[in-house]
Amino acid sequence: MNTAQEHTESVVVTVTGCSTEDADAVFRALGRAYPSDRDESEVPRHVMEGHETVWTTTFDVSHPLGQGEPVRLAAPVTVEMQGGYWAVDRMKEMLATSFEVQEEGMAAGDQEKDVQLRLTSGIHQ
């Protein structure tokens, strides 16, 4: 048994109820802090105009890349995070450095939790 084996903590982040620009702003802020399965050149797009689009990306919070900084949003964004307790809490703390964060709901399981947040602009005019 290898006790020195590296452990990865992933958080699945889902963004809904916003413009493609605001979704991109959220994913870019998270991408500055954590590696993800999202290519840097990827930009969220609406699949079908007039219908709500859901964007999803997985982040690894075990190896932070950098610090968060305030980010401007045009309108509030709904973010859902699913992962281990430590990983979700760590990501929520990072989001609070870039945005105003309001927790809207939480469901807890044995080893994972699901948290719904409402993000508003971290830059005030």
Descriptive notes:
By secondary structure, the chain is α+β, with helices and mostly antiparallel strands. The protein is 22% helix and 31% strand. It has two helices and five strands; from the N terminus they run E-H-E-E-H-E-E. The chain has helices at 20-33, 85-98, and strands spanning 10-16, 55-60, 77-84, 100-108, 112-120. A five-stranded antiparallel beta sheet has the order 2-1-3-5-4, with helices on one face. A hairpin with a 3-residue loop joins strand 4 (100-108) and strand 5. The longest helix is centred in the N-terminal third of the chain and has 14 residues, at 20-33. It is globular. The relative contact order is 0.24. Residues 1-7 have low confidence and may be disordered.
Write a concise keyword list for the protein shown above.
125 residues; alpha+beta; 5-stranded antiparallel β-sheet; 2 helices; 5 strands; globular; disordered N terminus
Give me the secondary-structure topology.
Layout: E1 10-16, H1 20-33, E2 55-60, E3 77-84, H2 85-98, E4 100-108, E5 112-120
Antiparallel strand pairs: 1-2, 1-3, 3-5, 4-5
Number of strands: 5
Overall pLDDT level: 84
Largest beta-sheet characterization: 5 strands, antiparallel
Instruction: Report the principal-axis shape.
Output: globular
Query: How would you name the oligomeric state of the polypeptide chains in this document?
Result: single chain
Helix content: 10-25%
Structural class: alpha+beta
- Estimated share of beta-strand residues: 25-35%
Strand order of the largest sheet: 2-1-3-5-4
Radius of gyration: 15 Å
pLDDT < 50 runs, ≥5 residues: 1-7
Q: Kindly, what is the distance between the CA atoms of the first and last residues, rounded to a whole number of angstroms?
A: 55 Å
Q: Please, how many helices?
A: 2
N-to-C series of helices and strands: EHEEHEE
